[in-house]
Structures are given as structure tokens and as C-alpha cells.
Design a protein that fits this description.
globular, single chain, Beta Polymerase, domain 2, alpha/beta, DNA polymerase, domain 1, 5-stranded mixed sheet, 14% strand
């Protein structure tokens, strides 16, 4: 039995939530949340670590008590402690926590005062106007709850790209071990590298269809077989995601891969172009008067209709056909183009690893430089640095640099923008840093005008360089805050402010559409991991994939440059 880190973390988070609802000590609740975060951040499977007799208490935020609970989860798939907590709380009560704006204390109030035990009961109480009478809720909170309840229902149908990748790659390895599998392709929104994935589409080239389909449905992580036919099957994995398999013939490979990659809008446009030329194109091939036209791959199909090959990330019907026709498709950025990671955090603020550990990992990744950008101290939970601590941080980085070869460590900070647009650190301190990121971590609910004015004021500071995670969204968890993106991008161009694509899989911010618009305006970008541990430094690929969806080329992203050219690109 395989136990994924995600499953362990979810059980720890569930313990934290149940303890919170029961009114447990806040420190105790937080210890379980922090442990869950540590588990999620591990690149290795906790199960494998235990098989090697590793001491889990050596990991941050995991004490002896929680370590024992993790061992039980790994050994049995269950937790007696979690079961005992569940016995005292209605089973559907935890589901309410999935709604944005609902914490354990609010859930406890709903349960104690209105006996609300499920989302359906909450929806009824909201519609009847009962919730607004509870202390701490009110009209505005009630209105937001109604909106968020609807959004939460739709968000649950998709999985963020990283989670989908972690689930599907082991499945693909399992499938490819079968001798009858000649070739395997991942298709759909996963292949297009969308930030979230619905069902995952797998195409397998094989002449032994039934053997392949039987092998597919026998995978140990399959919870339920939804359908099983002669050429296709759908299964639901234990994690809840659906996987569709189609076994295809060699003569249909190119057409099938093109069709099942999508997007739907891209395919509709291509079919219309084919029809206008007297052809029919579908998942089985290209036909003229019911006669098959043999085209073995996607490139040949595009070429047949006068287009150069369109990369999967661009297949959203956003101008890719016109660009291809005119030989004007972008030469998309690649992971190997990145020469430095310019947002990361260390033990000097709220992260797990030291400056030295982060630098060593980045050197292994082949980077020429990094920027250490610990938080400023405005938001207490980030344990950030104050004005008088920055000179010491700069000196610390300078000394570490002296002992390092083949990589340069730049001194930087991620500085909070206050509600009035001022920054959390003084200009006197900011001008001493190599790189200054500024970001919004508070007051998300300002009006669009106030938020826009706030950001514009911050952008006018002469010492800021990079607008970090510019819309503040967390995929499926928090909406972008409202502001005039067009004004912000134009001010960024005027002030040489670099816009970030934050590669954290939960953010991917800027999104693809805004990244493309930034490119059109002439705004330069960086791709950064926002890593809070050495493992998260591997997130860079997600940012690069997002940049590719935004039509970005190597020249559009300044951390593809050498360290000297990077510094020059930051200058006003």
C-alpha cells in the first residue's frame, strides 16, 4: 500500500481543523498545520523515509507525538487519534471549512448557534437570512459566504497542475512497464500545461488493446472503474482524479494526439479551416471524400493546412493560427534558459533552509546567481526583518558570497506595501539592496480604485524593482484582488518595474493572459519560485510553463540574462 505525502498532510490538516472546531489551544492547532506543511514540502515520500528508519523529528515542525501519528498513518492508512476526534463532530461539518472565509471558529459558531452540520444546511440558513444574525458574521460576510459557496463547488472539480503531475507520472511509469505499450502520450489540459487540470487524458499506441486496458484498470491506485471498453477506459484514482485512456492505432496517432490535446476552441477552428479546404479532420485522421490522408504526426497536419507547428501551450485560440500563418509564432522560453532564481526565503524569515543551503541547491540546479529576498516584518506570521536588521542581512550575504564559487548571491528583500501605498522599509535601507521585490500581503478587499492607487504609489518608489505575485491569487483558494491591470502594466513599463510570474504551483501569478498582455505592452518579466525550502526551488518549471502559455520568449524574461545584464535590466 502506497501512502502519498498528500494523504498524510491532509490527515494532519484535518486534525488541526477538528481541534480548532473543538476550541483547542491555538498553539496546538498550529503545530498540526505546520507539520502538514512540512510533509507537503518533502520531495521524498515520507513512507520511504520511514522504511529507511529515518527520524521524522529531524524534520522541522514535527515533534515526537506527531511523528508517531504519521507512522500510524503510513502503517495502517488510518489514524486512531483522527478517528476519536471525528466521533465527537458531525461528519459533514468539516466540508464547510473548504469554503473561503470559513475557519474553525466560525464553523464552531454555526454549529453551536444554528446546529449547521453541512454545506446544504449552511446554504439553507443563508437563504433564510439566519446566518447574518450571528455575532461576527453580518451582511457583508453573509453575502461573501453565498458567493464563495458557489465558487467552491466549481473549484473542486479541478486539480492544480503540480498535484496532477505527482499523481499521473507514477501511473505512466507503471503503464510503460508493459511490453505491449509501444508509445504513451499525455494529452488534454495537462499537456497544454494549464494551471489546473480536470480529467487526465492518456493515449497509448498498441496493437494489444485488451491487455493494455486490463493493465490500466489493475493499477493499485485505482479506486473505481468508471468504464471499460474495447479501446477506451476511465478510472477514478484514490485521490479523486479521473483518468481517461484511449488505445490508438499508429495511423491515427498524430490526429488523436492533436484532437485530445485540445483546446476545444483550437480544435473547432482547425476543423473549420479543414472543412473550407474540403477535408474532414477528427481523432481518427484526415479524410477527403472518405479517403484517409496519411499524416503521421501533428507537424505534418499543421503543415498540410499552411501552418507551422503550434506548441501545445499556445493552443487556446488566442491568435496562434494567425501568428503561425505569418511565421510569427514566438520562440517560447525553455527551462534551460533560466540563469537565476530571484525570489526565495530562508530561516532569516519564515522558511526552512539557510542562505547557504539554498545557494548550494541553486548551484546544483546550474544557476549563475540567486537573490535572497526574505520578508520585511509588517506581517507578523512571516517573522520578517525590520529596517535595523537589513544591514546585518546584507553583511551576512556578503560573507557567504566570499566562500562560494560559480554562483553569486544577491541581497534582496520582499517588502510589504502598506494600505496607503508606502513601503514597510525605508528608502535608506532599500537603496542598499541589489534587488527589491514589493508585494501585497494585506488589505486585499480594498476597492479597485484604492487598490490601483496603492500599487501605483508603490511603483513610483525609485528603489523597487519587481512586483511579486502581482494579483495575489491562490488558485482555488483566494481570488485576485481587484485593480486596473492595464494601468499597472503601463506604469510598470514607464518605471521599468519588472512583473513576476510566481512559479509556486498554488499561485502561478501573473497568469497566462496577463503575461501575454505584459509582453504586448513591452513590460519585462522574471520567473521566480518564491521557494521557502530547497525542495520548492524545483518549482521553476511551473513558472516557465506558465510563461510559455503567455507567449513569452527568452528575451522577455530578465533572469535568462547573465548576472551583470540582469542587474543592468533592473536599473531605472
Amino acid at each position: 500500500m502506497i501512502i502519498h505525502n498528500k494523504e498524510i498532510a491532509e490527515k494532519l490538516e484535518e486534525m488541526a481543523n477538528l481541534l480548532g472546531i473543538k476550541g483547542a489551544n491555538e498553539y496546538r492547532v498550529r503545530s498540526y498545520r505546520n507539520a502538514a506543511l512540512t510533509v507537503r514540502r518533502q520531495s521524498r515520500r515520507i513512507q520511504n523515509m520511514l522504511e529507511e528508519d529515518k527520524d521524522l523529528t529531524q524534520l522541522s515542525n514535527i515533534g515526537e507525538s506527531i511523528a508517531e501519528k504519521i507512522k500510524e498513518i503510513v502503517n495502517t492508512g488510518e489514524s486512531s487519534f483522527l478517528s476519536s476526534l471525528k466521533e465527537k463532530i458531525p461528519p459533514d461539518l468539516l466540508d464547510i471549512l473548504e469554503i473561503k472565509g470559513m475557519g474553525p471558529k466560525r464553523v464552531q459558531k454555526l454549529y453551536d448557534e444554528l446546529d449547521i452540520k453541512s454545506k446544504k444546511e449552511l446554504e439553507k440558513a443563508l437563504n433564510k437570512g439566519k446566518v447574518k444574525n450571528i455575532n461576527g458574521f453580518g451582511k457583508k460576510t453573509t453575502k461573501n459566504l453565498k458567493t464563495n459557496l458557489k465558487k467552491e463547488e466549481s473549484n473542486n472539480k479541478r486539480t492544480i497542475l503540480k498535484q496532477a503531475r505527482n499523481l499521473i507520472l507514477p501511473f505512466c511509469e507503471y503503464l510503460e512497464r508493459l511490453n505491449e505499450v509501444q508509445k504513451l502520450h499525455l494529452a488534454g489540459s495537462y499537456r497544454r500545461k494549464k494551471e489546473t487540470v480536470g480529467d487526465i487524458d492518456i493515449l497509448i499506441l498498441s496493437s494489444k488493446r485488451q491487455i493494455v486496458i486490463d493493465h490500466f484498470t489493475d493499477y493499485e491506485e485505482v479506486e473505481k472503474i468508471i468504464s471499460k471498453g474495447e479501446t477506451r477506459s476511465t478510472v477514478k484514482l484514490k485521490t479523486g482524479i479521473l483518468v481517461d485512456l484511449r488505445v490508438i492505432k499508429e495511423k491515427s496517432e498524430g490526429a488523436a494526439l492533436l484532437y485530445f490535446t485540445g483546446s476545444k476552441s483550437h480544435n473547432v477552428t482547425l476543423r473549420k479551416i479543414a472543412q473550407d479546404d474540403g477535408y474532414k479532420i477528427n481523432e481518427y485522421g484526415i479524410f477527403q471524400n472518405n479517403k484517409r490522408i496519411n499524416k503521421s504526426n501533428e507537424s505534418e497536419i499543421y503543415q498540410m493546412f499552411g501552418f507551422e507547428y503550434i506548441p501545445p501551450e499556445l493552443r487556446e485560440n488566442r491568435g496562434e493560427f494567425e501568428a503561425s500563418k505569418n511565421n510569427n509564432l514566438p520562440k517560447l522560453i525553455q527551462l534551460k534558459d533560466i540563469k537565476g532564481d530571484v525570489q526565495m526565503h530562508t530561516t532569516q524569515s519564515d522558511a526552512e533552509n539557510t542562505i547557504t543551503e539554498m545557494a548550494k541547491k541553486c548551484r546544483k540546479l546550474g544557476y549563475e546567481y540567486i537573490a535572497v529576498t526574505d520578508h520585511s516584518g509588517y506581517i507578523g506570521v512571516t517573522q520578517g526583518l525590520k529596517d535595523d536588521e537589513i544591514p546585518e542581512q546584507i553583511e551576512r550575504i556578503t560573507k557567504i558570497n566570499e566562500n562560494f564559487e560559480n554562483i553569486e548571491i544577491l541581497s534582496g528583500m520582499e517588502v510589504d506595501v502598506l494600505e496607503d501605498g508606502k513601503l514597510d522599509l525605508s528608502d535608506e535601507v532599500l537603496k542598499k539592496l541589489d534587488v527589491v521585490l514589493f508585494s501585497i500581503h494585506s488589505h486585499f478587499n480594498l476597492s479597485s480604485k484604492k487598490q490601483t492607487d496603492r500599487i501605483l504609489k508603490a511603483m513610483d518608489n525609485p528603489y523597487v524593482n519587481i512586483f511579486a505575485h502581482p494579483t495575489g491569487r491562490k488558485i482555488g483558494k483566494r481570488d485576485p484582488y481587484s485593480y486596473d491591470i492595464e494601468k499597472i502594466l503601463k506604469r510598470a513599463k514607464a518605471n521599468n518595474i519588472i512583473m513576476e510570474i510566481n512559479a509556486s504551483p498554488a499561485r502561478l501569478d501573473l497568469n497566462d493572459i496577463h503575461s501575454k498582455r505584459a509582453k504586448e505592452i513591452g513590460v519585462k518579466m522574471v520567473i521566480s519560485t518564491d521557494a521557502h525550502s530547497i525542495n520548492e526551488l524545483n518549482y521553476m518549471k511551473y513558472g516557465v510553463w506558465q510563461a510559455r502559455r503567455g507567449w513569452l520568449e527568452k528575451e522577455d524574461v530578465i533572469n535568462t540574462k547573465s548576472v551583470e545584464k540582469f542587474k543592468k535590466a533592473l536599473k531605472k
